[in-house]
Design goal:
Elements: E1 10-11, E2 14-15, E3 17-19, E4 29-31, H1 43-53, E5 61-65, H2 71-78, E6 83-88, H3 91-104, E7 109-113, H4 116-121, E8 127-132, H5 140-148, E9 152-162, E10 172-180, E11 183-190
Parallel strand pairs: 5-6, 5-8, 6-7, 8-9
Antiparallel strand pairs: 1-2, 3-4, 9-11, 10-11
Length: 191
């Protein structure tokens, strides 16, 4: 989730913090490093997404590609996901993710330092929910979407956040979409 330099995210007046908005870890703050373009999905957008999903994810297996701050993955874990895999290539971000996992005691989180595209190319596990929030304006979401359906369980969901309107590829159906500032976001479901 690294891109152009963005203003630091603030939670409760502190820079480089994001708040978990629901579930077991509700109101807990996650620290993340000051890095170019590290911009967590805003509270309002995460709230909309989890309203679309039905709030809780009991027993779900989730994948957070381009994890960055981990806001989406930690939110899924907080809402009952049994397994959440966070993929992040930046060492500083990985260290922060690991520290936040330890602080919360979130043992259902698996943190992998890897390139998201390379990791996904070798993945043979299907997930209930995949978060795709690559660096803004990178075009990586459109590339990933073409092959994403094979990584989803039947009826599985993909959340996509990018700089342009989300178009569902073959195998996925656009369920809901929205916009916040320059970001377009959508929830897709496997046919």
């Amino acid at each position: 989730m690294l891109a152009k330099r963005a203003a630091p995210q603030r939670a409760h007046g502190a820079a480089n913090r994001v708040r978990i908005i629901g579930g077991q870890y509700r109101r807990r703050l996650l620290d993340f490093p000051d890095a170019d373009g590290l911009r967590p999905t805003p509270d309002r957008v995460r709230e909309t997404l989890f309203n679309w999903l039905g709030q809780d994810l009991p027993g779900w297996a989730c994948l957070d590609l381009f994890a960055g701050s981990g806001a989406l993955g930690f939110e899924a874990a907080s809402r009952g996901a049994a397994r959440v895999v966070l993929i992040e290539r930046e060492a500083k971000a990985v260290r922060a993710l690991e520290a936040n996992r330890t602080t919360l005691g979130a043992s259902q989180l698996e943190i992998v330092r890897a390139d998201a595209l390379a990791w996904l190319a070798h993945n043979h596990v299907a997930f209930d929910l995949i978060f795709v929030d690559p660096p803004f304006d990178s075009g990586l979401a459109a590339t990933l979407l073409q092959d994403l359906a094979r990584h989803l369980k039947p009826g599985g969901h993909a959340y996509v956040e990018q700089g342009e309107e989300v178009v569902a590829p073959t195998g996925l159906i656009l369920q809901r979409s929205g916009r916040a500032g320059r970001s377009h976001f959508a929830l897709l479901i496997k046919e």
